[in-house]
Design goal:
Rossmann fold; elongated
Length: 317
């Protein structure tokens, strides 16, 4: 048994053909460095990895499965022709859980202990005490998006004694560490209870602009906002206004509506804001995990078994 696989740009790995042939001896792997190369060979392919743009999909007369290179790809990856097709799409969610949850906790602990205040003071050689620390066993985190990353973050928060409220549209029961689980329709009712609002959701039609003026107004003025999901989920102008007016106490941000964040943007110099340049997912073993997931799914596809990480195409995740 075997099948034809086309590995398209931008995320291809030169060692994958050899590894795939070890796992599936009869597989036909076409490794393409350009879209033009992929267009020449995708016509009779059974499966493809990469960014399958509309012109590629038009050429693919036999395609059944597409492996997306990311957990949350760029806007436009799920174009209408792909959404309307019968193709199965998988993604790489779950491989970043430990790295991103550690990044979230770095933001959270920094705010709890006042590092967002003391680091700027250090740069000015200013010895000033008095930050009112947040005692985590008495604090509440609202985690918006309780997939792999959100669930691991919830577990870590609970280990620090925090109360965790999860907001998720798909879960039927609360993961470990989540004391209360609600649907996105109930977000407004739980935001006023949060000391930390943590957003891990991908960009989807439902999450674009999910956090804007109304959501920030609903938060306590002592609460902190943390976003490591996708920049398109937050209206940055509204976030800036909320910070300026003191509607919220601060923000930890790894993703932005516009990336790179322009060097003239007010967020760079606002008190109470911690910024990292879209690096929350960085860490060791990602390539090994991505390879293991992809090869395992190729074996499953070859054997006609259920694939891992199947995407709801209409919702992009």
């Amino acid at each position: 048994m075997g099948f034809k696989l086309v590995i398209c740009p931008p995320n291809y790995q030169e060692e994958w053909p050899d590894k795939l042939k070890e796992a599936i001896p009869d597989i036909d792997v076409q490794l393409c460095s350009t879209v033009g190369e992929a267009m020449e060979v995708i016509g009779d392919a059974d499966a493809a990895f990469g960014d399958i743009v509309p012109e590629l999909l038009e050429r693919a007369g036999n395609l059944k499965w597409i492996a997306c290179p990311q957990a949350g790809p760029h806007a436009g990856y799920y174009h209408q022709a792909l959404i309307d097709s019968d193709l199965v799409v998988t993604n790489t969610r779950e491989i970043y859980n430990d790295h991103i949850s550690a990044h979230i906790m770095s933001f959270l602990l920094a705010f709890a202990r006042g590092l967002h205040v003391y680091i700027p003071q250090q740069l000015e050689s200013n010895w000033s005490q008095g930050y009112d620390t947040i005692y985590l066993p008495q604090a509440t985190a609202v985690i918006v998006g309780v997939g792999g990353i959100g669930a691991e973050t919830a577990r870590l928060c609970a280990e620090f004694g925090m109360t965790v409220i999860g907001v998720d549209p798909r879960l039927d029961h609360a993961p470990k560490g989540v004391a209360e689980l609600v649907r996105p329709d109930d977000l407004a009712s739980v935001l006023p209870r949060a000391d930390f609002v943590i957003v891990t959701v991908p960009e989807t039609p439902e999450t674009q602009g999910m956090f804007a003026a109304a959501q920030f107004k609903a938060m306590k003025n002592t609460a902190f906002f943390i976003n490591i999901g996708r920049g398109a989920t937050v209206e940055l102008d509204d976030l800036v206004d909320a910070l300026r007016t003191g509607e919220i106490a601060g923000a930890g941000l790894d993703v932005f509506e516009i990336e790179p964040l322009p060097d003239t943007h007010p967020l760079w110099s606002m008190p109470g804001v911690l910024i990292t340049p879209h690096v929350a997912g960085d860490g060791p073993y990602l390539q090994e995990r991505r390879t293991e997931l992809f090869i395992d799914n190729c074996v499953r596809f070859n054997e006609g078994r259920q694939l891992r990480n199947v995407v709801d195409k209409a919702n992009w995740f």
